[in-house]
Amino acid sequence: xxxxxxxxxxxxxxxxxSYNNLGVANDVAxxxxxxxxxxxxxxxxxxxxxxxxxxxxxLGDSLDELIKLIEKLQPKRILEIGTAIGYSGSIMLLKSxxxxxxxxxxxxxxxxxxxxxxxxxxxxxxxxSFLGDASELIPDMIEGNKYDLVFIDGPKSKYGQYLDQIxxxxxxxxxxxxxxxxxxxxxMNGIRPPHKFRTIxxxxxxxxxxxxxxxxxxxxxxxxxxxxxxxxxxx
Length: 235
Ligand SMILES: C[S@@+](CC[C@H](N)C(=O)[O-])C[C@H]1O[C@@H](n2cnc3c(N)ncnc32)[C@H](O)[C@@H]1O
Prior knowledge:
This protein has one domain (3-233): Rossmann fold (3-Layer(aba) Sandwich). The termini are far apart. The longest helix is centred in the N-terminal third of the chain and has 20 residues, at 3-22. The chain is an alpha/beta fold and 235 residues long. Helix 3 packs parallel to helix 4 and helix 6 packs parallel to helix 7 (159-166). The protein is built from eight helices and seven strands, in the order αααβαβαβαβαβαββ. 45% of the residues lie in helices and 19% in strands. The structure holds S-adenosylmethionine.
């Protein structure tokens, strides 16, 4: 395992511990109604398998909000940072049947599994899957594209950096949906963060201040799952 992979795994183990401490580890199993029993069973199987292997996929309450947004927006183009095994990506594409998804994942074995899942749900021809570090790949990934929706679900200390990189490529009226913004309940409570989470917590607090204060955005932060921020780009 190289340094980047090790960092990704470390950050995930922190998140998985967070889920356990929040008592929401078992909340992942989510009955997603896609009108097709075979697909529902396949999603339930992915959720079960992700839970068993401690792969952090979006939690049920947060997913409900993402689905509501997708159904309302019917985005032409979506950018996702943090593909994992293609769970959220497949759902977004099944809920918005004309959307194109550009998605990036650091770990090759996760990305390989995502490709299998995209195929399983018949969405492969609407996915551009990128392998590598998001900060490095984003400039090439987004060049010439405009996004109606961005789903930020990668490393938690980098949300501000990702917003810097992508904000010029989001349409006016478009949205940025961010997961895990409460990070184990430590972001909003004002306490001094424990040393090992300091970068994540301080970075997330700054990120939330920034979106609240910016005239460019209207944002709502909700206590769903591990906390979500839904940001509308108004300028
Ligand atoms: C929370 S998971 C994504 C879950 C997925 N969006 C879902 O809900 O099904 C975050 C993913 O980001 C990946 N990741 C971590 N660091 C990354 C980086 N620097 N660039 C791209 N992906 C990264 C991790 O390997 C992990 O699979």
